[in-house]
């Protein structure tokens, strides 16, 4: 009972998130509202074409399994062959007939059933793989949009600072304190900040469109909630790797092909037994059967077993060779996918070490820049406290603006480094087969 209540609670929370997202769909004119990462992932998985195609493949695999098993279930058909003939009767004058047939014993069919079972398992894992891939793409876009929004805010702050810097430089240039080149340099800094802001706005708009395409929500209606993003674990390559859903699906698909090939091989080697029965209700009204057949009866019934023993069939031999080739290809593709995943893990691990170091450096630079602001402000308030020929030149308000602009620049660089680190960690999580753990943590954080 406890398990049932937990599951019901989780479904209720997910339903609430979906209802909130539906409200956004029904009111596209509303301004952007904060939507949690868990809600966005749920919507993307529900709306994804890749997930829908994987669900269709699973439905098809289940149907193929039923087809493979149902050959043992007797099939029943009814019909009629009423007609008129001149001369010797060429057909049976049945008013109604019923036929039943089924497979009784077939060693190849057992292999076909095993192949269909492996196909269902492979399709189930392929669906899981598709859902994880959609979750990865959605989470990456969501985290990047949240980071870009913070960088854009910093860029707006820099524009205010550069505007003040240009004003100060112009006043000092007009007063003859600083050369014209300082004013031009300040204007260049302002133009560069403007270009950066335009670039960030374009990037944010693109990410908003991407999230809209993933979730089906109106473009620009999603405002990322930083608090809804759980910490991405600092996983490493020496962490116990699990086989990903995609690799397992490829292995099971190869196994299904092998069972199919074995069934086709047995098809030309061993006999199979079937059962059949038929009932006919015959009539002599249209055809004078009594002229040619003395013992005419209206009710006729027959049943029996059929045994088929393969002796020589080139078409089955060719089919067997085709199936074996498919099985070989599927096995090689599964092994190739495994090797590519190992290479990806090695590549991501190397990148992760570098990004860890870059993120640390960027964070330290931002902290140093913040300390420099404090030092400049202190000198501007108290002066340099020295006099004489060797005295240090008094700092100007321009130095303060430059220090603040540099600090915001270092802050944006730290955000970029952190974003690259998060992306790499997520990809490594998926390559190592731990993506599902993070998704569970994501939904737990949204409670």
Please outline the helices and strands:
Elements: H1 2-26, E1 33-35, H2 37-47, H3 49-70, E2 75-79, E3 94-105, H4 107-174, H5 180-215, E4 222-224, H6 245-267, E5 272-282, E6 299-308, H7 314-382, H8 397-431, H9 435-445
Parallel strand pairs: 1-4
Antiparallel strand pairs: 2-3, 3-5, 5-6
Helix pairs in contact: 1-2, 2-4, 3-4, 4-5, 4-6, 4-8, 6-7, 7-8
CATH homologous superfamily (4th level) name: Outer membrane efflux proteins (OEP)
Strand content: 5-15%
Sheet with the most strands? Answer: 4 strands, antiparallel
Overall domain count: 1
Percent helix range? 55-70%
Find the count of extended strands (DSSP E, 2+ residues). Answer: 6
CATH top level is: Mainly Alpha
Widest sheet: strand order? 2-3-5-6
Query: What integer value in Å does the Rg equal?
Result: 37 Å
CATH topology: Outer membrane efflux proteins (OEP)
CATH architecture: Up-down Bundle
Low-confidence stretches: 1-10, 23-30, 385-391
Quote the average pLDDT.
85
Shape: elongated
Q: What is the first-to-last residue Cα distance?
A: 20 Å
The total of helices stands at: 9
């Amino acid at each position: 009972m406890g398990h049932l209540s937990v599951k019901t609670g989780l479904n209720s929370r997910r339903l609430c998130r979906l209802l909130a997202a539906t409200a956004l769909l029904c009111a596209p004119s509303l301004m952007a509202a904060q939507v949690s990462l868990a809600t966005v992932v749920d919507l993307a998985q529900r709306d994804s074409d890749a997930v829908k195609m994987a669900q269709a493949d699973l439905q098809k695999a289940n149907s193929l399994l039923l087809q493979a098993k149902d050959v043992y279930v007797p099939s029943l058909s009814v019909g009629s062959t009423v007609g008129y003939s001149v001369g010797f009767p060429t057909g049976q004058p049945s008013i109604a007939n019923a036929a039943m047939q089924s497979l009784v014993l077939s060693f190849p069919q057992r292999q076909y059933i095993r192949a269909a079972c492996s196909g269902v398992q492979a399709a189930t894992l392929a669906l899981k793989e598709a859902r994880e891939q959609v979750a990865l793409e959605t989470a990456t876009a969501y985290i990047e949009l949240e980071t870009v929004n913070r960088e854009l805010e910093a860029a707006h702050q820099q524009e205010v600072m550069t505007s003040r810097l240009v004003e100060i430089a112009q006043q000092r240039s007009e007063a003859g304190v600083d050369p014209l080149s300082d004013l031009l340099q300040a204007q260049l800094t302002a133009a560069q900040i403007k270009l950066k802001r335009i670039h960030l706005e374009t990037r944010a708009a693109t990410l908003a469109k991407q999230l809209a395409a993933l979730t089906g929500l109106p473009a620009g209606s999603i405002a990322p909630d930083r608090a809804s993003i759980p910490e991405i674990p600092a996983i490493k390559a020496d962490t116990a790797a699990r086989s990903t859903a995609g690799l397992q699906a490829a292995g099971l698909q190869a196994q299904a092909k092998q069972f199919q090939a074995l069934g086709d091989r047995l098809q030309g080697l061993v006999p199979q037994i079937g059962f059949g029965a038929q009932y006919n209700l015959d009539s002599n009204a249209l055809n004078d059967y009594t002229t040619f057949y003395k013992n005419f009866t209206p009710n006729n019934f027959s049943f029996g077993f059929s045994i088929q023993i393969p002796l020589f069939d080139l078409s089955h031999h060719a089919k067997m060779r085709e199936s074996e080739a498919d099985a070989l290809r599927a096995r090689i593709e599964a092994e190739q996918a495994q090797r590519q995943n190992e290479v990806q893990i090695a590549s991501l691990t190397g990148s992760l070490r570098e990004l860890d170091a870059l993120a640390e450096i960027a964070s330290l630079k931002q902290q140093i820049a913040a300390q420099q602001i404090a030092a400049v402000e202190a000198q501007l308030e108290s002066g340099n406290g020295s006099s004489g020929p060797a005295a240090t030149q008094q700092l100007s308000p321009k130095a303060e603006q430059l220090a603040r602009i540099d600090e915001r620049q270092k802050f944006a660089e730290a955000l970029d480094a952190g974003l690259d680190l998060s992306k790499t960690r997520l990809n490594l999580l998926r390559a190592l087969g731990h993506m599902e753990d993070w998704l569970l943590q994501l939904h737990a954080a949204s409670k």
